Amino acid sequence: MKISRQSKIIELINKFNIETQEDLAERLMLDGYNVTQATVSRDIRELKLTKVALDGGKQKYIVLQNSEPGMGEKYARVLRDGFVSMDMAQNIMVVKTVPGMAMAVAAALDALHLSSIVGCIAGDDTVMCAIRTVEETIKVMEKLSKLINAE
User: Fold this and answer.
1) Domains and their CATH numbers in the chain
2) Judging by DSSP bridges, how do beta strands 83-89 and 59-63 pair with one another?
């Protein structure tokens, strides 16, 4: 439900000039989503929405683009520095890391926002990533390999 609702939020803010959380909640309710102001507020924060000024003193929500230049490179560096090896077991990708780096590598994998990755669990030197299908696991491993080996 959350993914569907957040997709609808992005669709709505791209289609309409939505100024307030209340406006957004109303539009969501019109589309069949029973939401509270707290839920809308949390979704806005998670989606990194921000307001921009329009002519006439009005504002509207937009999706905030990655505001920190170089963050992608920082995550790539964490992956390169912490990575030891990777393997797969069906749709589970297992990444071995330098001791103590699994959490950072898992955070970097999450930050890549690959829709194929359902989630990651990290120990001290191992990350397990649940991926939607075996085929997508292979593709994620190929992307990760290219990212780690790029200089």
Assistant:
1) 2-63 (1.10.10.10), 71-149 (3.30.1360.40)
2) unpaired
Confidence of residue 75 (pLDDT cuts 50, 70, 90): confident
**Under 8 Å between Cβ of 16 and 27:** yes
Sequence-separated (6 or more) residues with CB below 8 Å from residue 116: 131, 132, 133, 136, 137, 139, 140
For the segment 131-145, what is each residue's pLDDT rounded down to a tens digit? Answer: 999 999 999 999 999
> Cα-flanking dihedrals φ and ψ of residue 112, to 5°?
-70, -20
Beta bridge partners of 53: 59
Q: pTM higher than 0.85, yes or no? A: no
